[in-house]
Every structure is written in C-alpha cells, then in structure tokens.
Write a sequence for this structure.
C-alpha cells in the first residue's frame, strides 16, 4: 500500500471536469486507488464517486494505491494532482 | 410475519432485482433545445468523451428536469451541474454550460438535493440562460453517462429539437 496527501489548490475545488480527468488518470493503473476526504472515501476510477466528495479548495485529500504497480500509480497520481488540482 | 415482511422488503429494495424488463435503458432530454452530438462541445473534457459518452443540448429554456426516474447523487451547490443514478443504474451527469462553475451559483436556482428520489420530468435546476450567455459563457449542456464502460452500446438521438422527456440516449448492457 502506498499513500500520500494533497491539498486542493483549484479555487473551484474538485468540480466535474477535474474529477473526470482524475478518474481518467487513475484508470491508467491496475491497482485500486482510493481518495479520502473529510466528506468520505471515493473510488478514484469512478467519476460519480469522486464528485460526491465535494472536495473544496484548501481541503486535504489522501490518495491510497493498493495492488499491482501501486508505487507507480502513487507517483503518477501525485504528479497529476500537483499539475491539475 | 415480520420475517416475510423483512424478506420481501429487502428484495424489493434491491436495485438489481427490481430492474426493469430487458431492453435498453432510456435517458430522456433534461432540457429543451437543440440536441447535438457531444463532439460539438468545445470543452475537450466533454467533446472527447473523457467524462463518458453522451449528448449535448443547446438550451432554449432555462429548466433542467430529471432525465429518468432515479436519485440525485450530487447536486453541486453552485447549481451548474447535477449527477443522478437512474433506477436502472445509469450514472448521468448534466452540466449546464461550460466553465460555469466560475459563476458560483449566480443565475442558477436549485430545486433538488443530494439523495432526493426524483421522477422523470421533475424540476432539478432553473437557470437564466440569457444572463449566463451575456456573461460570456457557452450555455451548451452536456448530458454524460459517467459509467459508459458498463454498457456495450450507447445510442444517441441528436440532430433535432427536443423538449424534456424526448428520448435522447439508449444504453445496452
């Protein structure tokens, strides 16, 4: 298991478009990827699940990768979040 | 008696067992206007189907009505988008205008909330599309099936004017 935290920088929070891009990024990896926010936990590969978090700017999320290629997934997701959210 | 009530109560609450008869899942237009292929949406997240397959409507009326019987999954507090899960399991996102998250709720009025059970045609959001357009936003409204991968085929009915309740998408498992 590999996890890291990220604070949402996008002033609009984790709204529909970035949530979709995040799900697409997560789908590139075979392992299970979970996002935990104060509002709950979401499957990072499911857009609806991510949107339900309603994560806002300044909110800390934890991304946990578990399974096949988890190290690669964690570093890929971290890069994606830094660049986009 | 209690045992049977519990038994039957549970089985009828199970979305799998209460699924409608075979045949495609139908999704209806949530807003009046011109239905177009989603590829016509200039935002590539929608136009290139990154969020899923679907259609888009160029609205001629400022009301979003439920495209199916189902449940509101996520009503964005800004009112610019809403996601629903239909009773037959389709995950539907309706995004009213492009980049309209930036309006922070201005010109939008919410009429349903997270977790609400809704009927097809029930009012979800009202929006002032002329005011939104006047602020420089494209009011085109993508209707996206977020769980597109769950279906073997998704047929869209576009290239025509629609009113709420007209069939716009058919999903086959």
């Amino acid at each position: 298991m590999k996890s890291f935290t990220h604070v949402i920088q996008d002033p609009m929070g984790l709204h529909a478009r970035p949530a979709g891009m995040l799900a697409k990024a997560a789908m590139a990896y075979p392992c299970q990827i979970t996002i935990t926010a104060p509002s709950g936990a979401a499957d990072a590969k499911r857009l609806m699940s991510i949107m339900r978090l309603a994560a806002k700017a300044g909110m800390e999320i934890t991304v946990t990768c578990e399974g096949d290629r988890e190290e690669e997934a964690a570093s890929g997701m971290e890069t994606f979040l830094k660049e986009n959210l | 008696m209690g045992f049977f009530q519990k038994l039957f109560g549970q089985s009828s609450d199970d979305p799998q067992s209460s699924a409608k008869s075979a045949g495609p899942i139908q999704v209806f237009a949530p807003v009046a206007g011109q239905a177009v292929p989603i590829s016509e949406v200039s935002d590539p997240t929608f136009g290139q189907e990154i969020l899923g397959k679907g259609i888009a409507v160029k609205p001629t009326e400022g009301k979003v009505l439920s495209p199916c019987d189902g449940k509101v999954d996520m009503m964005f507090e800004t009112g610019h988008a809403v996601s629903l899960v239909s009773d037959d399991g389709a995950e539907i996102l309706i995004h009213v205008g492009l980049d309209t998250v930036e309006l922070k709720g201005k010109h939008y009025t919410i009429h349903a909330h997270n977790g609400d059970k809704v009927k097809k045609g029930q009012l979800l959001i009202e929006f002032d599309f002329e005011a939104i357009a006047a602020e420089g936003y494209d009011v085109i409204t993508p209707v996206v099936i977020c769980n597109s991968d769950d279906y073997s085929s998704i047929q869209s009915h576009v290239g025509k004017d629609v009113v709420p309740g007209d069939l716009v998408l058919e999903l086959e498992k």
About this structure: The mean pLDDT of chain A is 95. The first helix of chain A runs from residue 16 to 26. Chain A has one domain: 2-84. Chain A touches chain B through 13 residues (CB under 8 Å).
